[in-house]
Specification:
Elements (H helix, E strand, L loop, with lengths): L1 H28 L11 E12 L4 E11 H16 L5
Helix pairs in contact: 1-2
Length: 88
């Protein structure tokens, strides 16, 4: 049980690090001529929509923007995670 929790937390940390570092790397490389391809990004998701029920308002929406550096680092994080062995 504890081993599964540790592995799950490790995966979440690795994925979050990959996303954050990929965003920083993509932003830094945007101004470098031969590395500007790392900052190419795609954005997809749902635009915010409001549901007004007179008493309460709900706003739903989600947008994900993923650049090339983030995609590469996410793949690396998944490969690293698959190679890590957690001891009991």
């Amino acid at each position: 049980m504890k081993r599964n929790l540790v592995k799950t937390l490790l995966l979440i940390v690795l994925l979050l690090l990959a996303v954050v570092l990929g965003k920083v790397l993509g932003d830094v490389c945007a101004n470098v001529a031969f590395l500007d391809w790392l900052s190419l990004s795609a954005s997809f998701g749902l635009d915010p929509t409001t549901l007004d029920l007179a008493i309460v308002n709900f706003t739903f929406g989600a947008r994900i923007e993923l650049n090339t550096a983030q995609a590469i680092l996410l793949l690396i994080a998944i490969l690293v995670y698959s190679r890590i062995r957690v001891k009991d």
